[in-house]
Amino acid sequence: MTALAPTAPAADRQELRRTDTASVNRESSAATVSARHGLRHRAAPAPVRRTPAPPGREPAADPGDPTALCCAVAHAATEVLRGVRPLAQLVRSVSPEVYDQLETLARVRSAARDRRGAPPTPQSRSRVRRARVVRVAPDAAEATVIIDDVDRVRAAALRVELHRGRWRVVVLEIG
């Protein structure tokens, strides 16, 4: 058997409903009570203001895998150090600190070549042999790149980090 609760008269039930609605609405700032009808209304949601992207700029997309950048920068850096590639080609891919480091090292090697009277090493036979990239954080990765240089095999270690939605080399060591 189920026990039924005693029913209140209709006027009392409406009063209870108005009281319940008012107490609920006091707790919630998004709802208001209409005093005339005792009905609960929800306030309209605040408009979402979205600032459009500046002209010519797309919203930030996934930067993708940094392996290709690591290989390209390591290969280009070895060619810069050999004197067969201009350093300015790396300006967008490396941080200012790495750029300055490469500039100093390239100047020293160029002066050593000039003292010996040796021409820059030929461009042929330089290629990336192997690259390994490990993501150490969502916005950072570290890589090792093995490069078959003209007369030796070189190893390069790089750290890349996201900068304005693009991968950028922030540490570069070439052996």
Individual helix count: 3
Strand-pairing-aware structural class:
alpha+beta
CATH class placement of the domain at 67-174 = Alpha Beta
Mean pLDDT: 77
Strand content: 25-35%
Protein name: Rv3235 family protein
Region (Disordered): 1-65, 110-129
Biased composition (Polar residues): 21-32
Pfam families: DUF6459
Q: Which terms summarize this structure?
A:
175 residues; alpha+beta; Nuclear Transport Factor 2, Chain: A; four-stranded antiparallel beta sheet; two-stranded antiparallel sheet; 3 helices; 6 strands; Rv3235 family protein; DUF6459
Please outline the helices and strands.
Elements: H1 10-27, E1 31-33, E2 40-42, H2 67-82, H3 96-116, E3 127-137, E4 140-148, E5 153-163, E6 166-174
Antiparallel strand pairs: 1-2, 3-4, 4-5, 5-6
Overview of this protein structure:
The chain has 175 residues and is α+β, with helices and mostly antiparallel strands. It has a domain at 67-174: Nuclear Transport Factor 2, Chain: A. 31% of the residues lie in helices and 26% in strands. The chain has three helices and six strands, in the order H-E-E-H-H-E-E-E-E. The strands form two sheets. Strands 3-4-5-6 form a four-stranded antiparallel β-sheet. Strands 1-2 form a two-stranded antiparallel ribbon. Strand 4 and strand 5 (153-163) form a beta hairpin. Helix 2 (67-82) runs parallel beside helix 3 (96-116). The chain is elongated. The N and C termini lie far apart (88 Å).
